[in-house]
Amino acid sequence: MAGHDLSPPPRPEGCALCGRAAPLTKHHLIPRALHGKARYRRRFDRAERLTAILWLCHACHKHVHAVLGERELADHYRSRESLLAHPDIRAFVEWLATKPAGFKPKKAPRRR
């Protein structure tokens, strides 16, 4: 597929959710584990599967995956706005945003 830029969005200064200037990781809005599944290959083209990424700090990234399963993420939480609309994630992000960049939460909640 010539012409498609498959590189991730540029790494920002801070986490896309909490805004802290902490080390960042790539969160695939369509989880990589689902990229090969027919249902998601039909719904999203290759470029979208590979480039739909948010840069998150480790704490936010761990929290997102602790709260939501991969299919939930792919089906309902494919944007920064939809993630922040989830009450557990919004509460965590608002709390974490008040902490310094090096702060690490003790333990993530278990997925229900």
How does this model look, in words?
The chain has 112 residues and is mainly α. The protein has a domain of 75 residues. It is 40% helix and 9% strand. The chain contains 6 helices and 2 strands; from the N terminus they run βααβαααα. Strands 1-2 form a two-stranded antiparallel ribbon. α3 packs antiparallel against α6. The longest helix is centred in the middle third of the chain and has 10 residues. It is globular. The model has no long low-confidence stretch (mean pLDDT 90). It comes from Halomonas organivorans. This is HNH endonuclease.
Identify the notable features of this structure and list them briefly.
two-stranded antiparallel sheet; 9% strand; 112 residues; mainly alpha; 6 helices
Distance from N terminus to C terminus (CA atoms, Å) equals: 40 Å
Radius of gyration: 14 Å
Let me know the largest β-sheet: 2 strands, antiparallel
What average pLDDT do the residues reach? 90
Shape: globular
Strand residues, percent:
5-15%
**What series of H and E elements makes up the topology?**
EHHEHHHH
Number of helices: 6
Q: Point out poorly predicted stretches.
A: none
Q: What is the percent of helical residues?
A: 40-55%
The spatial strand order of the largest sheet comes to 1-2
Protein name: HNH endonuclease
